[in-house]
Design a protein that fits this description.
Layout: H1 29-54, H2 61-73, H3 82-102, H4 111-114, H5 122-126, H6 137-161, H7 168-180, H8 188-217, E1 223-226, E2 234-238, H9 242-252, E3 258-261, H10 272-275, E4 280-283, H11 291-298, E5 302-304, H12 314-317, E6 320-323, E7 332-334, H13 345-352, E8 364-367, H14 371-376, H15 378-386, E9 392-395, H16 407-415, E10 420-424, E11 439-440, E12 443-444, E13 446-448, H17 455-468, E14 479-484, H18 488-499, E15 506-508, H19 517-527, H20 535-543
Helix pairs in contact: 1-2, 1-3, 1-7, 2-3, 2-6, 2-7, 6-7, 6-8, 6-18, 7-8, 8-18, 16-20
This protein binds iron/sulfur cluster (SF4) and FE4-S3 cluster.
């Protein structure tokens, strides 16, 4: 059967090989086609900006932001709005024309850098520039691995950019690497090297975001977050964009409307700056994939600041608002570029007319163990390791998802020896953050550093422990890595860890479909990357010698 689309960028891809007729995520062939074209023209504009830099000409922040926002828009579950994606393609072509004018040497540019056509021809073009346009499966695999890593890096860059942080070096690399995925002269070895370099810049990008977040909102601190509800009507905020949340909290002050976090927005509660809002009352629900039930029972409007959007049911669709990189056809989109104040009054007005949320849980969960907080507790943690009270840390960061096989992570957390502590970040935490796993001498057995982008904190913590214990090699620490992935931000986290020299990372619930057998072999042989097995086997593998 002929493919109507081809996408294999996420863990839930159809049949663990590729979505060819309709995305498991709900992405339809038309949206897939326009996303492919958007990625392709973003590669083209990146080729021009890379050449401009070589000619010693500056590239504007606006151009950098167009490219990062484009890639972010194509991340799994971020944007399903065909028209919004078409507009971004047009914006990119317009910006590209201006940049092309500035270029002295226009010789040998690839088609992606020069192509232009009437909108009626976009669809046919989009069908021949997607993933499968690279025939060699190893080159394709590496090009996609790099592109997906860059999508993750773009997301993190965008979050820093809205807090007025930019890193020209990161943008320059991002564009150089993106352009390199068009270059047919690059060998497998060169692409492997570029993959690792992507990880290195992933660390820089995540450090930039960490700096932006903590200088704006303070360092996350241990916090107990209410998971019940109040009696007032509420607005639910999901996704990862803290700046959007801040603007919304400012605008809801004194309106009688409460604000709740959902999924990856939970860690906002850990920041001192967000604690000053009296109407910022708690977290409602769980990870992204449970939103159909949870958005229904929330009763009030929901603001999706980024991924992950699940196609909404008609019963609550009119209560969904998108902003930034996110979009869904038929849902109102709140505009506002970097540096602009967004107007959330439509959401606030709707909330006032809604019932308060239906309670689905009660109690609280504890988090806020980002690097500064853990390092503040370093003496306690180091003592616990030295006395043997803590034998091992298990990094279980990453994503949650629909697949039943992800129950592995709940079972694995429950089966861990009682002297093991989980270090987590990202929505993966919802698989075990409400279990009663207790504490070790006052240190909770689940230490949540924050969102997926705060995985950076886990690397900082590991490097700090390495220093404290005087170790030569990060792999000599009593830390094992059992990471759950779903979308492309987890790809940049993985590449970042590899670039820091972390070995033997286990990745599940399945290995990425975009890794060809040969590329998998490179990752296995050089980095000890592995999948997951049964809970029992993996507990034996990680803890066999201590049981
Ligand atoms: Fe399929 Fe995932 Fe791509 Fe959606 S993002 S179309 S589920 S591979
Ligand atoms: Fe989750 Fe979508 Fe990846 Fe930010 S919200 S971790 S999946």
């Amino acid at each position: 059967m002929e493919n109507l689309m081809f996408c294999y960028q996420c863990q839930e891809t159809a049949g663990s090989t590729g979505c060819t007729r309709l995305g498991v995520c709900g992405k339809n062939p038309q949206v897939a086609a326009m996303q492919d074209l958007l990625v392709w023209v973003s590669k083209g504009i990146s080729e021009i900006t890379t050449r401009l830099r070589k000619e010693g000409k500056p590239v504007s922040k606006d151009a950098n932001h167009i490219i990062t926002l484009n890639l972010f828009t194509t991340i799994t579950n971020a944007n399903f709005d065909d028209e919004a994606i078409v507009a971004k393609i047009q914006e990119t072509l317009d910006a590209r024309a201006e940049l092309l004018n500035m270029l002295d040497d226009k010789s040998g540019l690839s088609e992606a850098a020069t192509w232009n056509a009437d909108k009626s021809d976009w669809d046919s073009k989009s069908r021949i520039v997607g993933v499968l346009s690279t025939e060699n499966e190893d080159i394709r695999s590496l090009r996609e691995l790099i592109t997906y890593g860059l999508k993750g890096l773009s997301a993190y860059s965008k979050h820093a950019n809205v807090l007025k942080e930019d890193n020209e070096e990161v943008d320059a690399f991002l564009q150089r690497a993106l352009a390199a995925t068009l270059d047919d002269t690059l060998s497998v070895d060169e692409l492997v090297a570029l993959t690792l370099e992507t990880g290195k810049y992933g660390v820089s990008g995540m450090a930039m975001l960490d700096g932006a977040n903590t200088s704006t909102y303070g360092n996350p601190e241990v916090t107990s977050v209410n998971i019940g509800v109040g009696k007032k009507p509420g607005i639910l905020v999901s996704g990862h964009d803290l700046r959007d949340l801040e603007m919304l909290l400012e605008q809801t002050k004194g309106t009688g409307v409460d604000v709740y976090t959902h999924s990856e927005m939970l860690p906002a509660h850990y920041y001192p700056e967000f604690k000053k809002y009296d109407n910022f009352v708690g977290n409602y629900g769980n990870a992204w994939w449970k939103q159909k039930e949870e958005f229904e029972s929330f009763n009030g409007p929901i603001l999706m600041t980024t991924n992950c959007i699940v196609a909404p049911k008609d019963s609550y669709k009119e209560r969904i608002f998108t902003t930034g990189a996110s979009g869904f056809p038929g849902c109102a989109h709140i505009p506002g570029s970097i540096g602009e104040e967004k107007d959330f009054s439509a959401i606030i007005e709707m909330a006032k007319k809604c019932d308060s949320p239906i309670e689905i849980e009660t109690g609280s969960i504890v988090g806020g163990f980002a690097h500064a907080q853990v390092i503040a507790l370093a003496d306690k943690v180091v003592d616990a390791v030295k006395t043997g009270a803590i034998k091992k840390f298990v990094v279980m960061a990453g994503c949650d998802g629909r697949a039943k096989s992800r129950n592995y992570y709940t079972d694995f957390a429950e089966a861990l020896p009682k002297d093991a502590v989980i270090l987590t970040a990202g929505c993966a935490k919802y698989k075990y953050n409400k279990l009663n796993l207790g504490d070790i001498g006052g240190i909770p057995r689940v230490l949540d550093a924050g969102q997926c982008n705060d995985s950076y904190s886990l690397a900082v913590i590991a490097l700090k422990l390495k220093e404290v214990f005087g170790l030569e090699d990060i792999n000599d620490l009593p830390i094992v890595y059992n990471i759950a992935w779903y979308e492309q931000k987890a790809v940049i986290v993985l590449l970042a860890l590899l670039s820091l020299g972390v070995k033997d990372i286990h990745l599940g619930p399945t290995l990425p479909a975009f890794l060809s057998p040969n590329v998998t072999k490179v990752l296995v042989e050089n980095f000890g990357i592995a999948g997951i097995g049964t809970v029992e086997d993996d507990i034996n593998l990680f803890f066999g010698e201590q049981k």
